[in-house]
Amino acid sequence: MLDQLRQHQFVAGAVAAALLLAGCVRFEDGLDAYKQGDYATALKQWQVLSDFGDPAARNHLGVMFDHGEGVAEDDIEAVRFFRMAAEAGYAPAFNNLGLMYQRGAGVLQDHRQAVDWFRKAVAAGHVDAMNNLAVMFDHGQGVPENDVEAVRLFRDAAARGSLQAKNNLGLMYERGAGVPQSDAEAANWFKQAAEGGHPEAQSNYGAMLDNGRGVTRNSQEAIRWFTKAAQNGQVAAQLNLGLMYQSGRGGEPDLVEAYKWFNLAASGGSKEAAEFKRGLEAMLTSSQVGEAQRRSLSENVAVVERR
């Protein structure tokens, strides 16, 4: 029986090798399947490649185990795959290991280890790792707090196109951390990231427009940017949209639309939105509340489909 099992394993391995050599198993095919939500196909493709030592496939298998995509969520298994990819010098795996140590997922939380892995990824030119290492300096996690160094790293990542880093630079200018405080600079960086499609930056830029900070106050433009962010599930933007529709800033008051956005923000965990929602319930008829809830459900389905 054991000999038969070994023979079966040998044949299966030979078939996988033949497929690989024939070009039938490609990393890109797995990536296409993954992007389409076909996790079973991605898993199958990348497992074959992983067996032959492909670091990109191993890194992506780690991501699937970390997120529970096509497999049961298993952070320990995710770390195992990230380590194998990192041992081959694969920079994205350095960054992912840093994130696992930062969160304490699959490993004991260790900010110094996280910093070490982020540094390795940065040395290899990994843009997301530049942003992640900057956050560690900004928060003083695993390294002494150093906002000047955080800003330097955010700038490096932003110069390479990182929308998250551009948004974070906006936050640094807004706070005056590592740079002189400047609402104009904050608004500029938020706008750059917002135009690239970053939901948090869209919400932040909307807030600058709504309050006239660093830019000319423009409530209609604020609504436009809050809507973009809210449609991507950004809770702060949903709350702000509710407030704008309730007050009529940027247009006529619309309490049904306000309730819709408060309802969505409350579902996303905003206690403040839940309070405003309860306040509106006393002002609306049951049919208006029903209409607002119908709109909320429709919008929630749309948010999920956009992701």
Question: Can you lay out the helices and strands and say which pair or pack?
Answer:
Blueprint: H1 2-21, H2 27-35, H3 39-51, H4 55-67, H5 75-87, H6 91-103, H7 111-123, H8 127-139, H9 147-159, H10 163-175, H11 183-195, H12 199-211, H13 219-230, H14 235-247, H15 255-267, H16 271-281, H17 286-306
Helix pairs in contact: 2-3, 3-4, 4-5, 5-6, 6-7, 7-8, 8-9, 9-10, 10-11, 11-12, 12-13, 13-14, 14-15, 15-16, 15-17
Structure report:
With 307 residues, this protein is mostly helical. Helix content is 75%, strand content 0%. The chain has 17 helices and no strands. Helix 12 (199-211) packs antiparallel against helix 13 and helix 15 (255-267) packs across helix 17. It is globular. The termini are far apart. Residues 1-12 have low confidence and may be disordered.
Quick summary:
The protein is an all-alpha fold and 307 residues long.
Q: What kind of sheet is the major sheet?
A: none
Which range best describes the helical content: under 10%, 10-25%, 25-40%, 40-55%, 55-70% or over 70%?
over 70%
Radius of gyration: 24 Å
Q: pLDDT below 50 for ≥5 consecutive residues: which ranges?
A: 1-12
Question: What is the molecular shape?
Answer: globular
What is the name of the CATH class of the domain at 1-125? Mainly Alpha
Separation, N- and C-terminal Cα atoms: 49 Å
Structural class: mainly alpha
Per DSSP, the total helix count is 17
